[in-house]
Design a protein that fits this description.
Elements: H1 3-41, H2 43-76, H3 88-122, H4 128-160, H5 163-252, H6 267-284, H7 289-297, E1 302-306, E2 312-315, H8 317-323, H9 327-330, E3 350-355, E4 361-372, E5 378-387, H10 389-433, H11 440-463, E6 469-471, H12 472-486, H13 489-492, E7 494-506, H14 507-527, E8 534-543, E9 546-553, H15 570-582, E10 585-591, E11 593-601, E12 606-612
Length: about 625
């Protein structure tokens, strides 16, 4: 039997099993859906109707009590002329509206039951529960007719008779009938509907459980049958394939006498016969020259065949592409034509250099192998060479990168040494300036802030991809935040306003500029305000090829002309010294506060964008 017919029959059988399982599940779902539709059209309207009728009756009772309450107001305030009794008309309208609601809900329930009875008649069946529900609803209808007449009588009494007579009628007639007759009839109607619904739901659950078990058994049976069928089909196909694969492996290992014994009349049998013919043809012939040439030409390394005299017999395509020769230029030529560092006699496996047609020397890794004929005697030499140019370039790049890292490491050591020397000098200056009246905590804080201003430079440098320049605007933001916390400016009521452009500074400019910024802000915080509140503005901009750092406060200012190089405070003298290191121009303006401007040549690269805080 042909494989196509086997596969088609198997697929059709599996499809039939799947369709059968789907049909069973559809039948179960359809039965449940029909039952749910019947419940929604029959029992659920009964339950809803009973509930709404109870609510309507309770509303009518409350409205009747409000009528009595309105009548009692006259007894409590007999001399107060308010026209119509307060709220009496509204209560009567509410009573009548409640009765109309009850009548509407009663009519809807009756219509639902009649519709259900008509459907059962169409199906040729009679439901005892439906007949019982109709009888209960008829009892509710009878009791409601009495109750409606009583309500009409009660309303008439409330309009034209004394309050005592109205109250007695409500208690003795209306309320008694409501509690003893009408409400029990409505409750009985609802309770019977509830019991019937619970019974129907329990029946549905049982039927669905049975159907689910049946469907599950059918599904398991279909699955098992499909698996068995699939395994049988797979075995009928895989076994011949395994035999063919094993035979192919044996032929590949050189056993050309291998034959496949498959007597089937399907496609596998035809394939086995074709395989046997192919192996027979292969055994009767040798490997073609074109096949070997294709293998040689497909190699990614240079391959050169040398005869016993050391002359080139042939080479592959990669050899000509790498060295620039053509076949005629190399065929019959000695291999020494290509060797730059050795001769054919001294050539060994390892690194050497080939000479290209243009005279350049190409680094290669060469492998030499002797060719041996069928008789065991040498027939020539096979040379395989791999181009090492790319690897050499990579090695050179790695060495250059290593040297660059070593230079950077030496630069880091140099910068650290210089910064430590600056810290030492600052501490010596501060020590000489210190007197017994100076708070040591303040001196320690100033030193800590100066060191932190330098440390932030290296932190920015660490984050930057450019090891020569840092984003000074970001540095200003971080230093300002640090000073805000260090001097507790928020509690002192001093604000820092930043206005900076995204500019890059070299490290040798960033360190003194950052220390100048630290000293100017510290000077404003300590001397400009006392116990007053204020604002310190920090601006860093570039204009016409020069960077301008501005620190301005709105404090007390400085008296007279300021010469920072001869100032009385260490901070201002440091500003002068650092500005000299930057070759910067420093200007002091004192009026309604102190404004210090530091301008120096812009030698870093400006960065795109701006930061405004």
């Amino acid at each position: 039997m042909r494989l196509g017919l086997i596969l088609t029959a198997g697929f059709l059988l599996i499809a039939a099993l799947v369709a059968l399982v789907g049909l069973l599940y559809y039948q179960t779902s359809d039965a449940v859906h029909s039952e749910i539709v019947d419940l929604r059209q029959h029992l659920i309207p009964e339950l809803v109707g009973a509930s709404e009728m109870r609510v309507a009756l309770q509303s009518s009772q409350l409205a009747a009590q409000q009528i009595i309450t309105a009548r009692l107001q006259v007894l409590v305030q007999p001399d107060h002329d308010t026209g119509p009794l307060l709220g009496l008309d509204d209560s009567i309208e509410e009573t009548e509206a409640s009765l109309k609601t009850f009548e509407r809900r009663l009519a809807q329930s009756r219509a639902a039951l009649e519709s259900s009875e008509d459907r059962e008649s169409d199906r040729g069946a009679s439901d005892v529960d439906t007949d019982s529900a109709i009888a209960r609803l008829a009892e509710v209808d009878r009791q409601y007719a009495v109750y409606e007449a009583q309500v009409d009588r009660f309303i008439h009494l409330s309009l034209y008779h004394p309050t005592e007579q109205v109250s007695e009628y409500f208690v003795d007639e209306l309320q008694v009938h409501f509690e003893d007759r009408l409400l029990p009839a409505v409750n009985g109607y609802g309770e019977k509907a509830t019991e019937e619904l619970e019974g129907r739901l329990a029946s549905m659950e049982g039927a669905q459980e049975i159907a689910n078990r049946r469907n599950f058994l059918f599904a398991v049976a279909a699955f098992v049958l499909a698996v068995v069928l699939g395994l049988a089909i797979a075995r009928s196909i895989s076994r011949p394939i395994d035999v063919l694969q094993e035979a192919a492996d044996r032929v590949g290992s050189g056993e050309l006498g291998t034959r496949v014994e498959l007597r089937t009349r399907n496609e596998m049998g035809a394939l086995a016969a074709a395989f046997n013919r192919m192996v027979g043809d292969l055994e009767a012939s040798t490997v073609s020259r074109s096949y070997l040439d294709d293998i040689i030409q497909s190699m990614s390394e240079m391959l050169i065949v040398i005869d016993r005299e050391g002359l080139i017999r042939t080479a592959n395509r990669v050899t000509f592409e790498e060295l620039g020769y053509n076949l005629e230029e190399l065929t019959g030529k000695p291999l020494d034509l290509l060797l730059a560092d050795s001769t054919f006699e001294t050539l060994e496996s390892g690194e050497t250099r080939f000479r290209t047609e243009s005279g350049e020397q190409l680094p290669v890794y060469c492998s030499r192998t002797e060719l041996v004929g069928q008789a065991g005697s040498p027939t020539g030499t096979l040379v395989v060479a791999q181009n090492l140019s790319l690897r050499k370039e990579t090695e050179a790049q790695l060495r250059a990168s290593l040297e660059e890292k070593e230079v950077l490491l030496r630069e880091v050591h140099h910068r650290v040494k210089n910064n430590l020397q600056i810290v030492s000098s600052l501490l010596n200056l501060q020590d000489r300036e210190a007197t017994g009246s100076i708070d040591p905590d303040r001196l320690l804080q100033e030193s800590r802030n100066r060191v932190r201003s330098m440390a932030l430079i290296h932190e920015q440098l660490y984050k930057s991809k450019d090891l020569a320049n840092i984003d000074f605007s970001e540095y200003v933001s971080e230093l300002a935040e640090y000073l805000r916390r260090s001097y507790d400016l928020e509690s002192r009521g001093i604000e820092l306003e930043l206005d900076t452009s995204a500019l890059g500074l070299r490290v040798d400019q960033a360190i003194p500029c950052g220390m100048i910024l630290n000293e100017l802000v510290a000077n404003s915080v300590e001397h400009a305000y006392g116990n007053r509140q204020g604002e310190i503005r920090i601006s860093f901009r570039q204009r016409e090829g020069r960077n301008r750092l501005l620190v301005a406060d709105d404090g007390e200012g400085l008296p007279g002309t300021v010469d920072p190089s001869h100032a009385s405070t260490l901070g201002l003298r440091l500003v002068a010294a650092l500005a000299e290191q930057l070759e910067a121009d420093v200007e002091f303006e004192s009026g309604s506060g102190l404004s210090v401007s530091v301008e120096f040549e812009a030698v870093g690269e400006a960065r795109a964008g701006a930061a405004l805080t």
